[in-house]
Design goal:
single chain; 5-stranded parallel β-sheet; phosphoprotein; binds magnesium ion; alpha/beta; Diguanylate_Cyclase; 5-stranded mixed β-sheet; Sig_transdc_resp-reg_receiver; binds 3'-deoxy-guanosine-5'-triphosphate; 47% helix; diguanylate cyclase; EC 2.7.7.65; 312 residues
C-alpha cells in the first residue's frame, strides 16, 4: 500500500509489495484454478459468496477483484454495484469471470463499472495478462489520485485536500455530534529566514517543519496539510479542546526542538511557529468557515502577542 503522507519522490520510487487479488466464486474448483494462476506473484484472497467479498473489501481492500457472476445470495452484479457505490471501494477494479457469454450480460457488467469480462473456462495466460494490464492502470491512477492531494515540496497534504477534508469532517462532526479541532500554524519571521539563509535553505526548513508536525499526530484520521506558503493546518477529528491543546503545544515544541538556526528571528535563535487552535464542540451552530476563521484569528493573536506560542 502507498502511504498518503510519504514524500512525493519516495512515492514515485516506491516498489509495492505483491499486489492483492480477491477471487470470488461459489465453486471451490474455480477458486483453485485462479489460485494456481496467481499464487507466487500475487497475494490471493478468496471469498465464496458476495457478502464475504464485500466484507473483505472493507477490511482488507484488494488491488483487483476477479468476480463470479452467478452465486447464491448476492450475485456478482450486485456486489459490483455495491462496491462502485461506496467511495472507499469504488476505485478497486472488478473483472467479471463467468460462463455467461451473452453480450447483453457482458454489457450490463461493464456498465456497472467492471473493467473487463472474462469467459470461463479461463485460459491462464490470458487471464494473467489481463490482470497485469488492469493492475498497471490501477496503480497509475492511484498514484495520480494521491499526487493531486499532496504538496510537492513537503509531501504532506495540500490545500485542495485540506479544504475537502475540513468540510467532510465538519459534516461528520455535525452528524455524530462529535467535536472537531483545527490547528493553524505559521512559521515566524520566515521572510527574514529566506533573506538570510537563501530560498533553498527555506525549502529545506519547510520540509523539516512538516516532518516534525507529522510526528505529533496520534490517530490515523488526524492530518497535516500545507495550507499556504509557510502555513500549515492540522485537522483533528473527534478531538475535544482538552485533547487538542496538548497537541498544539507539542507542535510548537517539536518545531523549536528541530533547532534550525534562525539568527534574525526576534523570537528565538531557532525557527519557531505561532499556533492557533479552535474546536467545534459536539453540538455546534455555525459552519465550517467559522471554525477556520476562529483558528485563524487565534493564530493572528499568537503573532500579535509575541509569536512562538499557542493561542486558543
Ligand atoms: P510572520 O512571523 O508574521 O509570519 O512573518 P513572515 O516573514 O513569516 O511572514 P510573511 O508573510 O511576511 O512572509 C512569508 C515568507 O514565507 C515569504 C515567502 O518568501 C516565504 N515562503 C512562502 N512559501 C515558501 C516556500 O515554498 N519556500 C520558501 N523558501 N519560502 C517560502
Ligand atoms: Mg458461480
Ligand atoms: Mg510567517
Ligand atoms: Mg504566513
Amino acid at each position: 500500500m502507498i502511504d498518503l503522507q510519504t514524500p512525493v519522490a519516495e512515492l514515485l520510487d516506491s516498489t509495492h509489495g505483491k499486489p492483492k487479488l480477491l477471487v470470488v466464486d461459489d465453486q471451490p474448483i474455480n477458486i483453485q484454478v485462479m489460485y494456481r494462476c496467481f499464487a507466487g506473484d500475487y497475494q490471493v484472497f478468496m471469498a465464496t459468496n458476495g457478502e464475504q467479498a464485500l466484507a473483505l473489501c472493507k477490511t482488507n481492500p484488494p488491488d483487483l477483484i476477479l468476480l463470479d457472476v452467478v452465486m447464491p445470495g448476492l450475485d456478482g452484479f450486485e456486489v459490483c454495484k455495491q462496491l462502485k457505490a461506496d467511495q472507499s471501494t469504488s476505485h478497486i477494479p472488478v473483472i467479471f469471470v463467468t460462463s455467461h457469454t451473452d453480450p447483453a450480460q457482458e454489457t450490463h457488467g461493464l456498465n456497472l463499472g467492471a473493467v473487463d469480462f472474462i469467459a470461463k473456462p479461463v485460459n491462464p495466460d490470458v487471464v494473467r495478462a489481463r490482470v497485469k494490464t488492469h493492475l498497471t492502470l490501477k496503480f497509475q491512477s492511484d498514484l495520480l489520485r494521491k499526487l493531486v492531494f499532496l504538496d510537492g515540496l513537503t509531501g504532506v497534504f495540500n490545500r485542495r485536500y485540506f479544504d475537502q477534508q475540513i468540510s467532510t469532517e465538519w459534516s461528520r462532526a455535525s452528524r455524530n455530534q462529535s467535536p472537531l479541532s483545527l490547528i493553524l500554524l505559521d512559521v515566524d519571521y520566515f521572510k527574514r529566514f529566506n533573506d538570510q539563509y537563501g530560498h533553498q535553505a527555506g525549502d529545506d526548513a519547510l520540509r523539516l517543519v512538516s516532518a516534525a508536525l507529522k510526528t505529533c499526530l496520534r490517530r490515523p484520521a488526524d492530518l497535516v496539510a500545507r495550507y499556504g506558503g509557510e502555513e500549515f493546518g492540522c485537522i483533528l477529528p473527534d478531538t475535544s479542546y482538552e485533547d487538542a491543546l496538548p497537541i498544539a503545544h507539542e507542535l510548537e515544541r517539536k518545531v523549536r526542538e528541530l533547532a534550525v538556526p534562525h539568527a534574525s528571528s526576534s523570537v528565538d535563535t531557532v525557527i519557531t511557529i505561532s499556533v492557533g487552535l479552535a474546536t467545534r464542540p459536539g453540538v455546534a451552530d455555525g459552519d465550517v468557515n467559522a471554525l477556520v476563521s476562529l483558528a485563524d484569528s487565534q493564530l493572528y493573536k499568537a503573532k500579535r502577542t509575541g509569536r512562538g506560542r499557542v493561542c486558543s
